[in-house]
Amino acid sequence: MVLRIGFTGDVMLGRVVDDRQRRRSVDAVWGSTLERLRSLDGLVINLECCLSTRGQQWQRTYRPFHFRADPDWAIPALEHAGVDVCTLANNHILDYEEVALRDTFAALDDAGIARAGAGETIDEALEPAVRTISGSNADSDDTLEVAVISLTDNTPEYAASEDSPGTAWIDIAVDDTETRQRVAAALERARETNPDLVVASLHWGPNMVTTPPDSFREFGRWLVEEGVDVVHGHSAHVFQAIEVHEGCPIIYDAGDFVDDYRVDPELRNDRSFLFVLSVTADGDPVELRLHPTEIDDCAVHEASSGTAEWSRNRMRNLSEPFETSFDRDGDALVLSLEA
Q: Does residue 339 carry a pLDDT above 80?
């Protein structure tokens, strides 16, 4: 039996999304994807905002955008979609200062949603999110122990230190001593939980860039060689290529899943995928399935046929230089990971 774990790009629930959600059902933000999300055995998202109604906008350094969502609706929305893990190592989790960061911790913890990538100290920020994923088949008792580490190279002013809260910040460089030490510490803590599957979720690189730099390729491969089973990248607001290294998928960027952003007519940051990884109960990835999505009216939807075709073609073209080829099943792209 295989278990299916979904991965999304940025889930930004603040600003206009927050305003809309105060006047519609908590499920509305998931649009027509809700049934598919709820059918998964596990779900990992990058939460691109804090969950709070308190705090003041970060002013210590220049920040053009500040994202905050009311946990009174946001937490039920995450629960209804079946979110298991929120990664917090990103460039918006401290947008409303430490009080809102701590409110985010408390809201997720009270809801039983695991989190990684931010903490009261750098040691806490490096702790993995750990979840036991159970199969949806009532006749099966298969489970999967999943450990997720979350890291970012964005917004160094948000970095946690030995005595101040913030994110698990690193420099994306394999030869950087501090980076190697931090990644090693995070992976060691993940291994101590005896996981079947190790996920590295990385909020890396600049916005609106369609191709990962060589340093990211080197870093992603190095993570796999260090024992990571899937690399879950995000930050660019547009999806990037997928590479398979030693049988493990590297999703260089999952794009945007929910937001209120201005849409670039060429790069189409409103289009992406729900990435669904099929894993055996022993933790072996066997397939990655890409379900096309699009954002409309501050909600995510199953992509229309035309949009789905555009996204499939773009993903094929982006991934071809990485020697990654896909099959097709209905609207989805399918990437086999079996030898």
A: no
